[in-house]
Amino acid sequence: MSGEYVALCPVTEELVSQLLALAELDLTDDDAIEARMREGGWPDWSQAVQGPAYEDTLDVPEATHVTPQGHFVTCDGDGSLYLPFAYLYSVDGGLLDEDCWGTLPGWTSEEGAWRPEFDALFGSVVRRFTDRLGLPDHDIRQPRFTTRYVSWRLEHNVLIVGQGPEPLSYHQFEDAHVYLVSRTVKDAPFPDGEEMRALLTT
Question: Which of 7, 52, 152, 191 has the fewest CB atoms within 10 Å of its CB?
Fold first, then answer.
């Protein structure tokens, strides 16, 4: 029997404010992004994971930064910022034989939780951004889609709250994430390729 888990690192009102402040910037301007992250107390990944809080963790995801709450953030100058805040996964003695996310600083996990709990966490973050930005431009949450997302077109970027197969796991896990993508950079990695780009940039 596999153990089903949902792990969470909460998206607080403070984090929402910090993400919206980052969304005002050109995501390809490394200096401006780094300065804003330092203002928010986001250390780079290599500094954060060398601290004592990570000595007893089972595994530490690679990223470029870590938020004060414990989210692992990837923002490396390609016009995007990726911040997972929840995971859906099984501990089955195969690929995962221990609960790796629940041991990370700032994260908690619930054994026996599955799709309803995961969807509820996703929905709560969508509501936080809706309270600040108004109704989204696109709301693609039908169960028939593998990747589900809600998005807002901002002046310089698109803000997406999404959920779907975690990109580095060969679809063995899912994550729920906040994703900022530049509207102006040609090679920015929009999900679902050119069709998604056309939808969001026009």
Answer: 52
CA distance 183 to 84: 21
| Mean pLDDT in consecutive groups of 10 residues from the start of the chain, 202 residues | 87 97 92 94 92 83 94 91 94 80 94 94 97 92 73 91 74 87 69 58 56
The span from the CA of 85 to the CA of 156, in Å, is 23
| Number of C-beta neighbours around residue 24 at 10 A | 12
Look-up of token digits 């899912």? 174
pLDDT on residue 141: 80
Dist. CA 154–CA 181, nearest whole Å: 10
- Cα 125 to Cα 127: distance, rounded to the nearest angstrom: 5
Distances (CA, A) of 136 to 82, 153, 188: 19, 8, 21
Whether this prediction's pTM lies above 0.85 is answered by yes
Residue 99, C-beta contacts closer than 8 angstroms, at least 6 positions apart: 3, 5, 7, 58, 91, 109, 111
Cα–Cα distance for residue pair 159/29, rounded to 1 Å: 17
Locate tokens 């005002």: which residue?
24
Q: Give me the count of residues in the chain.
A: 202
Cα dihedral across residues 48, 76, 189, 155: positive or negative: positive
The answer to whether residues 164 and 174 touch, using CB atoms and an 8 Å cutoff, is yes
